[in-house]
Amino acid sequence: MSGYSNVGGSSVYEAGDQRTTKNSEINNAERYKEGQPNSHLANDSKDERTIANKLAREEKRQNEPEPIAKEAAESQKDPTLPAKNHGNEPSKGAKIDAEIQEEEEEIMKKKGSWGSKK
């Protein structure tokens, strides 16, 4: 009876009808771009970078300027702008900040530029 069993035979486990590409194409295919920028997260505990690589990255990071978000940069120019961009009315605090900023700009214009050469 054991002669009639197909268990363990290679024909049972072949998946030729399920494969869409040839093995030769798989081996010669262009690999996905390895080493993408920002592919490592600095605080990832499962990241397998060496300690030396992590230290080198932190040294580089110390020399880099802090990235400023678009809305933060806009709010430095005009405190009411982020709310207006989102279709909302600016808050009372933002309106007061805008008034103070305008007053300070007028004062600076009256004083003139510091260290000007005439």
Protein described:
- The protein has six helices and no strands.
- It has 118 residues and is an all-alpha fold.
The proportion of residues in beta strands is under 5%
Number of helices: 6
Strand tally, please?
0
Specify the structural class. Answer: mainly alpha
Report the C-alpha radius of gyration, rounded: 32 Å
Shape: elongated
- Stretches where pLDDT is under 50 for at least 5 consecutive residues are none
End-to-end Cα distance, whole Å, is: 111 Å
The SSE string, one letter per element, is HHHHHH
Main beta sheet: none
Percent in helix: 40-55%
Question: What are its keywords?
Answer:
118 residues; mainly alpha; 6 helices
Secondary-structure map:
Layout (H helix, E strand, L loop, with lengths): L9 H4 L9 H6 L22 H13 L6 H8 L3 H5 L6 H20 L7
In summary, what is this structure?
The chain has 118 residues and is an all-alpha fold. Helices cover 47% and strands 0% of the residues. The protein starts with 9 loop residues before the first helix and ends in a 7-residue tail after the last helix.
